[in-house]
């Protein structure tokens, strides 16, 4: 997270859109790493959103929003995992369950869903100084398609990337990398995620940035 914070500082990021926030773990890690600017977190599950709201309420720069993010508006059925953070709109595969037994689905629930472009229309978001973090357990490409206006100029996107199908119908690493390239975003760094019992990496976090926004050699970085 300290490395991510260095990149955010270099890109002069002043807003983080935290999609799939769960209980606010990512926002808390950002704060611990030294990021002090605006955070908007989006989480649909009632219990996770309650925990997220409690965290955000102690921070004047952090706002919680109770919604799933996708390419449509209305409601959607979500599969609730025992560990909460593996919950997804998409059905889970046996590969995921074998690697993380605690992720098994224990219930389903109807939750609100919105396009990020619609929610952010009146929020005063400047894409050129925004990081969009998407951790939606296989639903990343749908979230991106609902944020096309933001994506045209966005400074950086952090995505959860899967090498194999952990959720039915999800787009994989190469699909999402091509999607990012279509928006002019280059893969900048990778953080390992879950692996199977043989050590094969199943998932990672990839940070994509608009490299033209990085400071040139000798140019001062303003926090």
Question: How many discrete domains?
Answer: 1
The secondary-structure element order is HEHEHEEEHEHEHHEHEE
The name of the CATH topology is Rossmann fold
Q: Helix content range of the residues, please?
A: 25-40%
Q: What is the count of β-strands? A: 10
Would you identify the CATH H-level superfamily? Answer: Vaccinia Virus protein VP39
Give a quick account of the main beta sheet: strands, pairing sense, barrel closure: 7 strands, mixed
Strand content: 25-35%
User: What is the 3D form?
Assistant: globular
Structural description of this entry:
- The chain has helices spanning 2-10, 25-33, 46-57, 94-99, 116-120, 140-145, 148-151, 173-182; strands at 15-19, 38-42, 62-65, 68-70, 74-81, 105-115, 130-134, 156-162, 186-192, 203-209.
- It has 223 residues and is of the alpha/beta class.
- The protein has a single domain (2-71, 112-213), classed as 3-Layer(aba) Sandwich (Rossmann fold), CATH 3.40.50.150.
- Strands 3-2-1-7-8-10-9 form a seven-stranded mixed β-sheet.
- β1 (15-19), α2 (25-33) and β2 form a beta-alpha-beta unit.
- The longest helix has 12 residues, at 46-57.
- The model has no long low-confidence stretch (mean pLDDT 94).
Write the layout of secondary structure elements.
Layout: H1 2-10, E1 15-19, H2 25-33, E2 38-42, H3 46-57, E3 62-65, E4 68-70, E5 74-81, H4 94-99, E6 105-115, H5 116-120, E7 130-134, H6 140-145, H7 148-151, E8 156-162, H8 173-182, E9 186-192, E10 203-209
Parallel strand pairs: 1-2, 1-7, 2-3, 4-6, 7-8
Antiparallel strand pairs: 5-6, 8-10, 9-10
